[in-house]
Structures are given as structure tokens and as C-alpha cells.
Amino acid sequence: MAVCVAVIAKENYPLYIRSVPTENELKFHYMVHTSLDVVDEKISAMGKALVDQRELYLGLLYPTEDYKVYGYVTNSRVKFVMVVDSSNTALRDNEIRSMFRKLHNSYTDVMCNPFYNPGDRIQSRTFDSMVTSMMIQVC
């Protein structure tokens, strides 16, 4: 079950963070921000090969006892971080990859909105409902 989805700007500030259990919201914010170090390490390690690829799925960033953190980076260096409940063993890498593609497509729709200022927090109802449906779908 996906418990947290975050969109992080190129400059490493959050554009959007949504988590399911609201009592642990601060814990998920911490997990997302600590995963940014791992994302930066993976990007710098891949270097030139990452620029040539169209798929920028980073895979599992790090596991904890209760959760697994996955990452994805766009060509414009916007980062998507997803925290998944580790008790859900039915969730495969292909499904996580498709969830990131869906998230990326929805983010592209938000960016194409002429009333959205790039760099502002994402406050789109359609984006929010897509993230909610994605979290419910994985449950």
C-alpha cells in the first residue's frame, strides 16, 4: 500500500506531499527529505547514462522496517518519491514503475495548465484525486 507520495522541485523543496495516515505525517516528510540524498547519489553515479535514458526510474532508494522508499526523476530534475508499506509483498517493481509513469503524466498535465506558475505548490484537484485513487488502488 502506498502511504505517501511526494513531488520535489529541482531545488529540493516540496511541491506536493500527500500521506494516508495523517498521524505520521511528520515521519513521512522526514523520510521523503532523507531520500533526497540517496536520489542525488544515484543521479551523480549514473551521470551521463542517466541523461541518455528516457526512463528515469531510480528503483528502491532504501528500505526501513515498516516502509520502502522508491524514487523517480524527470528530465527537468523534478523528483517523485513514493513510500510503500513493506508488508505489501504483492507489489512488484513493474507496478511501481507504472505508478510513477501515471504520476509523471498527471504532473505534466498540471504543468501544462496556463494558470499554474512553475515552482508553486501543486493545488490541483485532478492531481490530488489521481494521487488518492493511486493510493486506494494499491491498497
TrEMBL record:
Pfam entry (one): Sedlin_N
Keyword Endoplasmic reticulum: yes
Main location class: cytoplasm
Keyword Transport: yes
Entry keyword set: Endoplasmic reticulum, ER-Golgi transport, Golgi apparatus, Transport
UniProt subcellular location: Cytoplasm, Perinuclear region; Endoplasmic reticulum; Golgi apparatus, cis-Golgi network; Golgi apparatus
SUPFAM superfamilies: SNARE-like
Gene3D superfamilies in the record: 3.30.450.70
Oligomeric form and interacting partners: Part of the multisubunit transport protein particle (TRAPP) complex.
Family: Belongs to the TRAPP small subunits family. Sedlin subfamily.
Protein name: Trafficking protein particle complex subunit
Organism annotation: Ceratotherium simum simum (Southern white rhinoceros)
Source organism phylogeny: Eukaryota, Metazoa, Chordata, Craniata, Vertebrata
